[in-house]
Write a structure and sequence with these properties.
Elements (H helix, E strand, L loop, with lengths): L6 E5 L4 H12 L3 E6 L2 H10 L3 E4 L5 H15 L4 E4 L14 H23 L6 E6 L12 H21 L4 E8 L5 H6 L2 H4 L16 H12 L10 E4 L8
Parallel strand pairs: 1-2, 1-4, 2-3, 4-5, 5-6, 6-7
The chain binds nicotinamide-adenine-dinucleotide.
The site of nicotinamide-adenine-dinucleotide has 28 residues, from α1 and α6.
Amino acid sequence: MRMAGKVAVITGGARGQGAAEAALFAREGARVVVTDVDETGGRATAAGFGGEFARMDVSDEAAWEEVLDGVLARHGRLDVLVNNAARYWTRPLMEESVSGLGQIFAVNLHGPFLGIRAAAKRMSGGGSIINVSSTAGTTGYPGHGAYGMTKWALRGLTKVAAAELAAQGIRVNCLIPGAIAGPMLEQSVPAEVLADPAHWAGTPLARAGRPDEVAQAALFLACDDSSYLTGTELVVDGGATGTG
Ligand SMILES: NC(=O)c1ccc[n+]([C@@H]2O[C@H](COP(=O)([O-])OP(=O)(O)OC[C@H]3O[C@@H](n4cnc5c(N)ncnc54)[C@H](O)[C@@H]3O)[C@@H](O)[C@H]2O)c1
């Protein structure tokens, strides 16, 4: 019960990694609030482990205030925020647009910025904030211009927030998943390619990760086992970017 007594909010928790994190945190004793723009999926996920759902678009500052006020009203505390929600597409730089950048920045970067600020002012007994970046934020994958910019920037935001919020006992760390099975990955790599062992030649563990494997890393950063970690990065990519 590594999350006993803690209250956790997870953005984009309707499916994928966020849903896996929500279920794992709840199994470890946390009271978990799943948030997402997908109300049907979010409600189903939360119901699966007896948690709560709140609709929240992470790019909406007023929604952050309302949802986190509700969390404090119902639970009296906030200990953990996972900034997991993101949009994703691949597009060559020459085909990207300023309006495309605006759309993806609003969710992937402004969302965590708003979340850090809204959560930090409500975490009275310290806390843990986890920003979910990507190996597209540590390397230069073709087609990952807009998405990659947000994920690179999120690493910088993590470090600044860690430095500024440490005095309040709030730790801020970055989770860096590689290729993780699910709808987001299948948007850029067809299922038959993912099933081909040749596709994994550059990945020592030779497969995609699973959402529950990322959730275990998120749990470590969320709970007190990582009490001396802040401003750091935990890469969960089967060795794809660390061994070449
Ligand atoms: N899947 C991968 O291979 C992979 C790799 C590296 C990093 N990541 C990162 O991990 C995180 C989770 O990815 P996933 O694979 O579970 O993605 P996913 O697409 O399965 O889930 C993302 C969730 O975010 C929600 N969402 C989108 N826009 C939102 C908004 N404006 N407000 C609130 N919620 C919103 C979606 O409804 C969805 O439920 C993301 O930050 C992603 O960038 C994923």
